[in-house]
Amino acid sequence: MSPPGRPKGESPSAQREGSPVSTRSQMDTQGIGVGRLVVGAHYGLSSYLLQRLTAVVLAVYVLLLGGVLLFTRDLSYVGWAGLFAPLWMKVVSLIAMAALLYHAWIGVKDIWMDYVKHTGVRLALQTLTVLWLLCCAVWSVQILWRV
After folding, report:
1. Which residues of the chain have pLDDT under 70?
2. What percent of the residues of the chain are helix, what percent strand, and what percent coil, each to the nearest 5?
3. Which of 1, 26, 54, 92 could join 103 in a cystine, given CB atoms 3.0 to 4.6 angstroms apart?
């Protein structure tokens, strides 16, 4: 039996002032709680973790590069070319560049997905972003292997 002042079947939370949901069936129809329909590709956690991993790779690279530059006396073009001439430095720099490009892709993709609602425009922007990042990757490989 319901207490006085509350209609039969109404939850106690509906009595609170400003409560937007009054019954379990309303919660289910409004998509709140256990009965809600979850849609989407579920890339959120993996994107979050990969972006954090690429950030760690970039931080290690910056610390390595900063440590090398700290002990380098020659900061002319010849000094920079000598710094990036060894194979190990080229490989480490390419790994860092790949991490940077993937980090940028995740961030920009999330921006397009969150704020551009029209599917065609979003697809076009994502395609342009991928093309731009691929051009940056090719350009960085050309720069590093030219030295």
Report:
1. 1-43
2. 70, 0, 30
3. 54
